[in-house]
Design a protein that fits this description.
The protein is α+β, with helices and mostly antiparallel strands. It contains 5 helices and 7 strands; from the N terminus they run ββαββααββαβα. Strands 3-4-2-5 form a 4-stranded antiparallel beta sheet. Strands 6-1-7 form a 3-stranded antiparallel beta sheet.
């Protein structure tokens, strides 16, 4: 069981960061030979990234469902994310190439991503009776007290750095 923090907490992170959502959708569940390789391509990429803190990946959470799966990733910068995506010596490019050769636009498996660049201070979080989670697990948690008691207050603290 994860360590539950029995109080209201907020996230504290300096500077800009990136939230990257990436997902897969099984469109034809009976074609396991098509979607299983796509699903199995992600764990080696995550292992590679998590073993290398200089990669810029701050943290990741997996959300599994059917027919959709989702990974929420937090990155130090868009440049870190893009550098990994285009590095010929990393797992991503070969997985992307394999997907395009075997599946591309046949409709069996869907993949998608969304990238959000978050400017310094332009975020707010709160966690109550939760283990470290989301951005809070990827960065630093602080008590949500005083000026951090409300969403508006947390945004003001983040923007002003107070």
């Amino acid at each position: 069981m994860p360590n539950i923090i029995a109080q209201r907490m907020a996230t504290d992170i300096e500077g800009d960061f990136v939230v990257f959502l990436i997902g897969m959708r099984v469109n034809k569940f009976w074609k396991i030979h098509k979607w299983l390789p796509v699903a199995m391509a992600m764990p080696p990429m995550l292992k590679e990234l998590l073993q290398n803190p200089e990669s810029g990946l701050l943290g990741v959470h997996s959300h599994f469902g059917f027919p959709n799966t989702l990974l929420v990733q937090y990155w130090r910068s868009f440049e870190h994310l893009e550098s990994y995506a285009h590095d010929k010596n990393k797992a991503h490019l070969s997985a992307w190439s394999a997907f395009n050769k075997k599946i591309a636009v046949n409709g069996d498996v869907g993949i998608w991503h969304e990238t959000y660049k978050v400017s310094a201070g332009q975020y707010e979080t709160v966690y109550n009776n939760m283990p470290a989670y989301g951005l809070g697990a990827a960065t630093r948690l602080v008590p949500a007290v005083g000026k951090r008691e409300t969403a508006k207050g947390r945004l003001r603290v983040n923007i002003s750095g107070e």
